[in-house]
Amino acid sequence: MLELRPNCECCDRDLPPAARDAVICTFECTFCASCASDVLGGVCPNCGGELVRRPIRPADKLSRFPASTQRVLKADGCAPKEAA
Question: Which residues make Cβ contacts (< 8 Å) with residue 24, sequence separation at least 6?
């Protein structure tokens, strides 16, 4: 089941389950659309994967399959992944 994390790992902005501007990578790292495009260039700084729009879980499923409440924040800040 997809973990719906509650915040952007870069700027700590709240990203509720219905947020249309939340993006994720295949490891479910979560960022706001602004950080993803303006800071990260659409690439996850953790794994180097593509960042895509996070799907919205239907509201009637959230009671049975709730979003995560654990906030994840990059301790060293958020910078673009260095080119190899």
Answer: 2, 30, 31, 51, 52, 54
Q: Where are the domains of the chain?
A: 1-66
Q: Which residues of the chain have pLDDT under 70?
A: 80-84
Side-chain half-sphere CA neighbours of 54 within 13 A: 31
Task: State in words which class domain 1-66 has.
Answer: alpha beta
pTM score of the predicted model: 0.87
Residue-wise pLDDT tens digits, 3-26: 999 999 999 999 999 999 999 999
> Could you please report the per-residue DSSP string of 7-41?
B-TTT--B--TT-TTEEE-TT--EEEHHIIIIITT
SS3 at position 47: coil
Return left, alpha or beta for 32; rule: phi > 0 is left, psi -120 to 50 is alpha, else beta. Answer: beta
Residue type, 72: V
